[in-house]
Amino acid sequence: MSTIFIPYYSLLFTLFSTFRSYNQKIFTHTLSMGIIFLRTCIIFITLLIVMRLMGKRQIGEMQLYELVITLIIADLACIPMGDPSIPLTYGIMAILSIYFLHQVICLIDLGFSPAKSIISGSPSLVMNKNGIDDTQLKKNNLDVTDLIESLRSAGYFSLDAVDYALYESNGSFSALAKPEYEQEQTSLPIVLVNEGRYDFENLARTKRKREYFEDVFKKHGCNRKKLLIATIDGNGKLYFQPKGKKYQVVRLQWEEKVW
Amino acid sequence: MVKTAVSILLSFLLIFGMSAFEIWYVTDIFKDFRAVLCGLYEKAEGSVATHEDGIAVQRFWEDRKLGLHIWLPHNSIEAVDFQLSEALGYLYEGQFTDALPKIEVLIDMAENIPNVFSLRLENIF
Fold it and tell me: Which of A50, A93, A95 is nearest to B18 (CA)?
């Protein structure tokens, strides 16, 4: 009888020891996981409070310093949250410091307008009644195609559709449209010449040769190579602007609407 | 504007208060710990230190280190734990010549740890 039970007891003992050792391991891991969970909760609540105190702008379009803060704060929150060897107070202190800096910059922003333009930048008027301001575009590391893209995003498909256009200091785009724009626009304008070079794909769409447009430019006293931009729509409305000069709009006599 | 100024003042006070408390708290604990360790060192030097003396130092440390975990990286505290356990082992075996360097390391750590985390130019960079 006893010979039968010895392996049975031995098996039970082995099972019990294994369970105990696993149980200890699970308990140890649960502790560490539990700590990370608690740390995450604390950091989450701290971040939530701080972001709430920073205001709504933080979750919408951001100023430059707000973007910097958002980039830093994500890292500050993650490091002490995931590494239990770093005291949580370090993360909380860092977040608190960021909040302090944010409020200081906000105060400078509100109180001293010259400082505001240094910290956050100032709006750039990239289009005026003379057309595109190439210098302002270059200052902001943009080109005409970026401007056209921004105009399209704002709902304007032609360069002569707006009187003024500007990039705000937070990077958003604003434009003041001409009053009669909606009635005039019936065809999508495309880029014909960009920085003095033809867009041959768009040139083919016009079903006309480059000599035709060369003649038009010459007739209006303009050298194609010195053009900043030239766009054309399907009705033959040509918009072109030489570098540093006022834009011109020419209505070419086309027999039919091309697109 | 007033609200922003008040929030700046409050957050500054909180940051300053926390920093000042941390410096005071950590320095104070390590100052006491160093004094206790110096006592143990003198006893070990005179070959009269017992294992119980070591246990008393360990209890002193264990009581204080709980609060230190909030302010210091846990690795620094673990390093003290490790050295202290080794010193205790040597004291238990009565090997004073081996215990002395360990206690000396601990005294050195008690002097240096608060300096490593204090507000100094070399610590900032």
Answer: A93
Residue B2 included in any domain: no
Q: Which chain A residues contact residue B69 at CB under 8 A?
A: 87
Residue-wise pLDDT tens digits, B60-111? 999 888 888 888 888 889 999 999 999 999 888 888 889 899 999 999 999 9
Question: Which among A96, A107, A111 is the nearest to B15, CB-wise?
Answer: A96
Domain of residue B48, residue span: 22-124
Quote the tokens at residue A179. 């009053």
The residue in chain B having the minimum alpha-carbon distance to the alpha carbon of residue A53 is B7
Q: With an 8 Å Cβ cutoff, are B15 and A107 in contact?
A: no
Residue B72 lies in a domain: yes
Place of tokens 């379009």: A61
| B1 in A contact zone (CB under 8 Å) | yes
Q: How far apart are CA A86 and CA A80, in angstroms?
A: 6
Among A140, A174, A181, CA closest to A159: A181
Contact A89 B70 (CB under 8 A): yes
Question: Which domains, and CATH codes, for chain A?
Answer: 2-117 (no CATH), 125-182 (3.30.240.20), 186-259 (3.30.240.20)
User: Which residues of B fall within a CB distance of 8 Å from A96?
Assistant: 11, 14-15, 18
Bridge partners, A242 (sequence order): A227
Indicate whether B7 belongs to any domain. no
In three-state secondary structure terms, A217 is: helix
Q: Give the separation between CA A38 and CA A17, rounded to whole angstroms.
A: 31
Whether A85 and B72 lie within 8 Å, measured CB to CB: no
Q: Which residues contact B116 (CB under 8 A, 6 or more apart)?
A: B76, B123
Report how many domains make up chain B: 1
> Cβ A103–B11 below 8 Å, yes or no?
yes
Question: Residue B5 falls within a domain, yes or no?
Answer: no
With a CB cutoff of 8 Å and minimum separation 6, the contacts of A217 are A223, A224, A227, A230, A240
Please tell me which residue of chain A has the smallest CA distance to B67: A87
Q: State ipTM.
A: 0.81
pTM: 0.66
